[in-house]
Amino acid sequence: MKKQQTGQSMDRVDGRLKVTGGARYFADHQPDGLLYAALVCSPVSSGTIKSVNATLALRAPGVVDVVSHLNAPRVPAYQESKPGAKDGLKIFKDDRIYSNGQPVAIVVANTLERAVYAASLVEVQYNQETHYTDMNASMDKAFQNSRMKDYVRGEAGAWEKAAVTHTAQYTIPLEVHNPMELAGIIAHWTTPDTLTLYAKTQGVKSVQETIQDLFKIPEQNITVHSQFVGGGFGMALRIWPLEVATILAAKKIRKPVKLVITRDQMFTLVGYRPNATQQLSIGATAEGKLTGITHEAVAITSPYEDFTEGIVAMSKFMYACPNVNTKYQLVPLNMSTPVWMRGPGEATGSFALESAIDELAHKLKMDPLQLRVINHADVDPEKNLPFSSKYLKEAYEIGAEKIGWTNRNPVPRSREEDGMLVGYGMSSGTFGAYRGKATVSATLKADGSLVLQSAASDIGPGTATAMVQIAADVTGIAPEKIKFMLGESSYPFAPEQGGSSTVSTVGSAVSDACKALQQQLATIAISNIPAFKTAAPETIIYEDGQLLTANRQEKISYEALLQQQQLPEVKVMTTSQGGPERKKYSMYSFSVHFAKVHVHPATGVVRIKHIVSVADAGTIVNAKTARSQMIGGVVGGIGMALTEEAILDHRFGRFVNNNFADYHVAVNADTPPTDVYFINKKDPYINPMGSKGMGEIALIGFAAAVANAVFNATGKRVRDLPITPDKVLETTA
Amino acid sequence: MNQFSYVRPANLKAAIDAVAKDKSARFIAGGTNLLDLMKSGVVTSEKLVDINRLPLKDIQLSEGALHIGALVLNSDLAAHDLVKTQHPLLSQALLAGASQQLRNMATVGGNMMQRTRCTYFYDTTMPCNKRAPNSGCGAIGGINRMHAIFGASDSCIAVHPSDMCVALAALDAMVLVTGPKGSRRIPFTDFHRLPGNTPQLDNNLGKGELITAVEIPSNHFTKNIYYLKVRDRASYAFALVSVAVALDIRDGVIHEARLAMGGVAHKPWRLPEAEKALAGKAPTAENFRIAAGIATQSAKAYKHNMFKPALALNSIQTALQKAASV
């Protein structure tokens, strides 16, 4: 047998293209006659547009058109929307302004510079109305929709009766995804009802579907190209008004139009992690057995959509606790709609839960790791089902050993190194291990090479590389002879790259398609090759790219089979999805994070010195890209813990730090040595590979590990992210 | 950004003429701040006068003083042997500033010419007395966590963002300028201005005047120096507060002390009273505490930067301690 590919640190199949500039991202495309667009965005946060005067802009050099609600082409779907329906912002439909930064016009010119300059010449008058952007000042508007029912297991509020209790409010600020690549699109109507798009998206098929719904044109008339995406973190999981605005401009002008938005527009046009306030209350016996958890969360949304995520999800099943109740409410503000941001919901919720566990442990005078272990949920207490696989306890042990947990002094502010206070903290994270439905075509060529196609996306984790490894193991074909093609809407269906599900969903379809291809080859052999004539199909052995009879006496390579039969290729298409196993088992990935921090006693500056993250994510398909993905999640977690916060001036409803100098994503100097470990044990039920998702758990829980470490170092508990020097100084021990 | 013309004069006189004679013309060197301002619509120059080819790139000793051409890159200056050996405080401060990429573009003169940093100045939809006189100060009643605690006025509470300038202020540098009326020397601490009622003016350069060099007089601050920058992330972030300390310690006594702060005022903030308090004293924690107290006495904070006086107090003591214990 050949070396197993799954689990190897195979280099990225597109690595060379990426580092040599050969990979073409959406904005790199240059269709003939391409025009350039710039947006005019509202500086008011609520009201109506009184007038749009484009005279000066239209006179500026190179300007082709200025499109607004006054002259935009009709969007058929807008007419179907019922008044008051919360079905999104209908760009250029009418004069209503819902939030600051909302696009009010798009200027198209023959160069980017001319479009940008002309956009500054468009004069827009507004009727300004009172706006609301401060959640704390708008709590009276809090509501629940049907997706966010209160949850009660056992008795609500039981924590209060416990021997040892803790209750506190935890807040996270608004965070912005800020991938390096800016959002935008190239739109080209090649006929009045045929549209070609070069998109930045985490799902080409969902773009196709959205546009089909909006413009009522057939699916096959919409072509979406998106082979390379320069980071998404969730912001590219849906079509935004900026893309529709470009498509409308292109429709009016009948030429290809490219829009790439600016960094400040990334704060208002492509979603964000909503700021949230959480009250986390928890009670335990004197021995540390949890008796009650109450988790109440409030987060913001836009006036025109209810964005919900799993903020309170983790509290329901993470620990074996008989009494749990949760409440989740939304406050609609004059803001654009939030969207999933890496570790959506759970990243927010875990900061509260995993900080509270640490606070409770301190009150119990118990090691927080020990508290977690004695309350470990052996079965899912929410669904009352066994876990398909769960190696959380092993992960705790590995993490504790690797960080040197025994060096942690349980008494806060008791250790110093080089004049810095030293602290250790830990936390856990979890996220659903999903498997969706996907279709993959597998084509074996006469030269023995295998081409796989599926409309999956790759926002950077190395999707095609993992798929090649999976296919290589099923078929025995050498990885260098396998090509996995993605990012084209013309390929068979795959869902968005989100929710840590691509390897599980698309990988399963790759596995199934490769198996189906082999069966097809066996059928051909049985029908045409004398030595195989009498073989029963189910007895055929597939090994190293060959078919073998059951007694291993006869064999033929796939390549030879096609050549002998003069077949240019053999192609199969297979749709794959999860089955009844998903009803019998509770499926989650788990992570644990350990952090060692230094805190400067005089300035409050926190520096993370060492990180150990351990993932229970089932079988690891590619050890190298998996490690990279974990490190990427941790770096996002460092930003969440220490630096990231989009700040609004509520008087104007505008962000005051909407640039990379003032909105602080973690930089290399913030990122200490990060050791990543994988349990790497197959989940027996989730999918053929036994792989659970990993993208989200890399970040989920991390911020709490840092907050807990800062407490251990200083005796100060910061419950309001990010943990900036001023908060450390001002918090009393 | 508006359309503009671009010229690259061959000599100093032509460059000065080009700016002196054109109301909206500006010099451009590295452009690391000017281009941002133009993209934001804060600056709408119709002519840029590129000075990058002028012969202002030398670093040399002249009569004991270190003469630094205005076009020397921040990265080159930080790495220069004469700077590292004779004025290591300047090297430390430079390396605390911006990012390597920015330091590779930014010049000494350009660093000094940076505008004060404030959201309300950069966002043309917001009120700002500096950008649009008499439109009001957005920061005073707004988000002012990064803002001044010293020397601010009712019209502006922005802070100068430079690290390099804090060290140059501490080192008593001189600024050499040439303009339509000839050349002059400006003490570094008089180069930048406090906002007063004219926050639109960040410095005392006249129209058409060009910084040609900075000179640092010889000193004894080669050992007991420290530049402390407290910031929200470990690199590429503006200072919450920064402290430049230079001590001349002889026989266990501080012969002379220099102290300046960044991130706290509209200009690099020298602390002369605290320096006086340290002169002739022993470098002890108690003396540092007293000096830091004197230095921060007059601090006035706003809603979101209430932490700054205490942080400044702690940071001065920390920096003094670090400098003394080298």
TrEMBL record, chain A:
Residue span(s) of domain Aldehyde oxidase/xanthine dehydrogenase a/b hammerhead: 20-130
Membrane-crossing residues? none
Residue ranges annotated as coiled coil are: none
Q: Which domain of life is it from?
A: Bacteria
Q: What is this protein called?
A: Xanthine dehydrogenase family protein molybdopterin-binding subunit
Organism equals Chitinophaga hostae
In the record, what lineage is assigned to the organism producing the protein? Bacteria, Pseudomonadati, Bacteroidota, Chitinophagia, Chitinophagales
TrEMBL record, chain B:
Q: Does the keyword Flavoprotein apply?
A: yes
Protein keywords: FAD, Flavoprotein
List the SMART domains: CO_deh_flav_C (SM01092)
- What Pfam families does this protein's entry cite? CO_deh_flav_C (PF03450), FAD_binding_5 (PF00941)
The residue ranges of the FAD-binding PCMH-type domain are 1-221
What is the protein's name according to its record?
Xanthine dehydrogenase family protein subunit M
Native organism is Chitinophaga hostae
